[in-house]
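User: Show me a protein chain along with its predicted structure.
Assistant: Here is one chain, sequence first, then structure tokens.
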Amino acid sequence: MNSSKHTELANHAWSVADLLRGDYKQSDYGKVILPFTVLRRLECVLEPTREKVAEIAEQYKDGDIDPDRFLRRASGHSFYNRSNLTLKKIAADPQNAAKNLAVYVGAFSDNARGVLDRFEFAQQIKRLDSAGLLYQVIGKFTDLDLRPEVVPNHNMGYIFEELIRRFAEQSNETAGEHFTPREVIQLMVRLLVAPDGDALQLPGAVRTVLDPACGTGGMLSAMDDLITELNPDATVEVFGQELNPESWAICRSDLMIKGQDPENIAFGNSFSDDGHARKTFDYMLANPPFGVEWKKVKDDVTAEHEKLGEAGRFGAGLPRINDGSLLFLQHMISKMKPVDVDGGGGSRLAIVFNGSPLFTGAAGSGESEIRRWILENDWLEGIVALPDQLFYNTGISTYFWILTNRKSPGHKGKVVLLDARDQWQKMRKSLGDKRKELGKDHIATVVKLYGEALAVAGDAEHPLHGKVKVFRNEDFGYQRITVERPLKLRFEVTEGTLAALEVSKPIQKLPQAAVLADAFKSLMGTSWGTKQEAWLALKDAVVQAGGTWPTGAPFNKALREVVGVRDPEGEVQRVKGEPEPDAELRDFENVPLGEDVEEYLAREVHPHVPDAWIDHSKTKIGYEIPFTRHFYVYEPPRPLAEIDTELKALEAEIQVLLGEVTE
């Protein structure tokens, strides 16, 4: 089925909006259209065995035996409907449409009825019936031909995604939170599975796949399709979890139709209510929403981090509250299969990120610690930069992170960075922010380049050599050093000194505060080079004024703040004989991991500030992946003569146009 056909079918379903206009807000159209599309698809799938199932249901109607397994066998699917009703029959009896539709939905098996319940379908039936629209809406869907031989499962996914995209536009939701463009998924699954091609073709291969933010299930379907394409005899078990009820229901119905176990798709938040706790998987992939805060589950996540530590999912660290992307990655890593002594087992996972997880967070922050944990465990195999404007809800640049705990020998201790930002073609028609797409040739090029990355990076003559770089894990690490410089002061009494004295709380609390102020006035305009000289002079002035000189560290500190002035030529202040650091001159430097920081200081800092030193107690280890910096190519500015010639040509053109206007 071509794209125009599934768009035509989606248009047919969405045409129901014309009936709903006035009785429903635009943002609520999807609440009717999506469940009716699911219902119609289930009906079309069950049509060939409908009568047989109804007969068996009738046979066991009054018996004590649960006929569930017999009904499943008769339907040929994991779900069924015991009723003789159809949408066409229901639409033909407008007076009883609501009652008959409720009976029809109630006759579905529990798993199918659970899907429709997530849409709050019973409420929509009542609302449509009250508006006198129910039988008309049903009639529209009876004309929608969604039989599997007309609309294969793969294409049905496109129809659901198109409907969800329109629903999201109408309700100002983010379409990208629900699904990922199919060609992006195709690239993702191929990069994930490519190294395992031979193993997947072994007889009796069984693979489990998880998407913890599965949306409508597009990624799970693509993984299933690819693995069975490589080995038609392979068994693929897919698992997922989804927070959005409409997307969850569509994903679950899709799995039922394909013969997968719909119970494998959990509903709820993966962080606070892990639907697949203590399970591990062969493959994992996800496109979590970009930059979405995790405040709602903060208590659960923080508690697991603090109480379980590395025994839990989030032991490595917690990212900032406004972006939970790295929580998804930690969640997935916790579900990797262990590698056995013979090198078997293990997992591979891929996740879509924006640029933030590459570098956000300074050394010691949650994000940096998570990157450190991943790289020091040698799990990051590669990062692929994708073109911008690929996704429906954002035009920003995105990246695939590919991780595994069973790297090939050549990849151990290394990370591949692959720049695929130029692998795209322009779409004939934009969809939201999506203006670019990946063609089949682009996908093939990127997959091949990733598979040959080590060889291409080592071959300067390769035409795509500049698109691949290979680094050691430790190349992304750095030491965040604190460079201190001594506090240098001169001491003076000025109008500013007296003003500061009046607002200094430690000094104003003293009984002799007024005496101090009078004594200081007598020294107006005086300056001293050292603290000792200043204190002696100030003390003498206070005594001469009839006061006593206060003691104690708080007073001395406050007095220094009042009369001390920073001066590059001033006296170095000391604490217990050591130079006191000046907080205002404090600086930070990132030194590559493994480099001697004292040598760095001598080479890079001392030529400019010879008295600087490193406070080693404040040194932190950080990790960041500055992807764009590694692929930056300098482009020299255009020659001034060329720019000048172009400007003169434009000026001449403007003069001609102005002349035409004034004539």
